Amino acid sequence: MSQEKQPYYKAGFRTNSEEHQINDLPVRGEIPRWLQGRLIRNGPGMVEVDKPMRHWFDGLAMLHQFHISDGKVSYRSRYIDCEAYRTAKESGKITYSDFATDPCRSLFQKVQTVFDPAPKITDSAKVNIDQIDGKAFALGEPLMQVEFDPETLESVGVFHYGKKPGNRMTTAHPHQDNGQAYNLVVQYGPVNYYKIYGMVGEVKEVASIPVMEPAYLHSFGMSERYFIIAEFPLVVQSVKLLLRLRPFIENFQWKGNRGTRFFIIDRQTGKLKATIKTEAFFSFHHVNAFENGHELSVDLAAYPDAGIIHEYYLNRLEQKDKELPFGRMERFVFDLDKKQLKERKILSEACIELPHIDYEQYHGQSAYRYVYGCGIHPDNRQEFYNQLVKIDVQTGQHLYWHEPGLYPGEGVFVPYPDRKAEDEGLLLSVVLDVNKGQSFLLVLEAQTMKEKARAYLPHTILFGYHGAFFKQLL
Ligand code: CO
User: Fold this and answer.
1) Most-buried pick from 3, 128, 236, 324 (CB within 10 A)?
2) Which structural domain, as residue segments, surrounds residue 435?
């Protein structure tokens, strides 16, 4: 592909980042003084080693920290110190398997894997950040989650779910309630399982469901009484994963005629309350789930199928005329007495991905109204995510922030200290400005989605995934 045909936002995908520490970024506008803390973001930092990575979900993890204090912003970035990063630095080669990129292997090595089925899956936890049991974690889908120091970004150690990682994957989207954190683990073997673990204190298996062909699951749902696993028909024969002849995600196959199965699990007993089948669809992100008597509502950012994964290959994203499929907020209402789907509805026509709610106050609450996320502006449809949206799930209306040439990442909501309404707060996002060749921290007023301030870095940052705001001080 010739240079001029590539879209301007390619800087968000193709440049390895360096580690930086910069004090006192230039601020345009005014950052409210009450906002004190650290926005920490996770995502790929190194995407080219001996060869370029192939997919937006590949790469070696880099943490970015925007430290906000008294209206000023300082910035620090650091690679996660893990085996995959160290060996890539030392050997100059990709040595661990990633989401859609494997190390170069000779035919001999491929045959060898049959006899040595332990795959070297990346330990570079690049998907999300969360605070669990008072500790900060970088979270990825392999079963190794890396604790780090939120002040220095130094890696501290690795969290295991009781046993060695083995042939198991997890999600980077744990749930928290009453001091306990839960995560979904998919275990591959002669029998495959979806398992829910409690992660705080002694690691404990809370639920276990055997399945024939496990699905690729990026998140799961939780309401006051239930865990919800939406099993989309993007499934794998686990022997293919154990042999690892292809990169991880390329072993999965879309089997639309299976439909999507919702496993609804009682949180107290770990037993299945209901298994309910719907039409096939796909989603990365559960957004919220809540109960109303015997009804359970499950909200997700949904797609008709798993084609979005294919669209995130970098050679697809770099085509100028491509159009990403829209993720849309959808609600599934289940009647748990009749064990059937009562209603499925689209909550808004607006495109949304990387959805974010005020989890602390409104997760599991039927009164919740607002979902923040990245979207695509209808006037600039043939682009990567180029606006921030705020969807009111009760009215279906949405507000957005969009400026041509700017590409925002996930918006993280931080409530006002004395807020009364759900959306009284700020939305923080890291934005790529292609005209300046710089990224900046954006501060929006969440109620109006109007800009309050931005703080420019002297360089660009790769498009990341998820992050979190750590209030001052841990
Ligand atoms: Co995610």
Assistant:
1) 128
2) 9-470
Inside any domain, residue 1: no
Q: Model confidence at 160, in pLDDT bands (50, 70, 90)?
A: confident
Banded model confidence at residue 161, pLDDT cuts 50, 70, 90: confident
Q: Is 170 helix (H, G, I), strand (E, B) or coil?
A: strand
Q: Which residue type is seen at 452?
A: K
Strand partners, 415: 425
| 27-85 pLDDT, tens digit each | 999 999 999 999 999 999 999 998 899 999 999 999 999 999 999 999 999 999 999 99
Do residues 342 and 277 make contact, with C-beta atoms less than 8 angstroms apart? Answer: no
* Residue 361 parent element (H or E): helix 359-362
- Indicate whether 4 belongs to any domain: no
Does the pTM surpass 0.90? The reply is: yes
**Structural domain total, the chain:** 1
In a domain, 197, yes or no: yes
Which of 100-114, 234-248, 367-381 shows the lowest mean pLDDT across its residues? 100-114
Q: Locate tokens 């037993």: which residue?
A: 271
CA gap 456, 62 in Å, rounded: 19
Q: In this predicted model, which residue has the larger pLDDT, 8 or 27?
A: 27
Query: Which residue bears the tokens 């609600």?
Result: 331
Round the average pLDDT of the chain to a whole number and report it.
92
Across the chain, which distance is largest between two alpha carbons, in Å?
64
3-state class of 186 per DSSP?
Answer: strand
Beta carbons within 8 Å of 407's beta carbon, 6+ residues apart: 9, 12, 383, 384, 385, 386, 431, 432, 434, 463
> For residues 108 and 407, what is the distance between their CA atoms, to the nearest angstrom?
44
- In angstroms, what is the span from residue 217 Cα to ligand 1's centroid? 10
Neighbouring residues of 362: CB distance < 8 A, sequence distance ≥ 6: 288, 368, 422
Mean pLDDT of 369-382: 95
Residue written as tokens 């609804």?
Answer: 264
CA 219 to ligand 1 centroid distance, Å: 7
CA distances from 418 to 157, 329, 358 (A): 36, 29, 15
Does residue 3 sit within a domain?
no
> How remote is the CA of residue 408 from the centroid of ligand 1, in Å?
16
Ligand 1 geometric centre to CA of 467 (Å): 10
The CATH number of the domain holding residue 331 is 2.130.10.10
SS (H, E, C) 236-301: CCHHHHHHCCCCHHHHCEECHHHCEEEEEEECCCCCEEEEEEECCCEEEEEEEEEEECCEEEEEEE
CA of 141 to the centre of ligand 1 (A): 10
Q: Tell me, in angstroms, the distance from the centre of ligand 1 to residue 63's CA.
A: 16
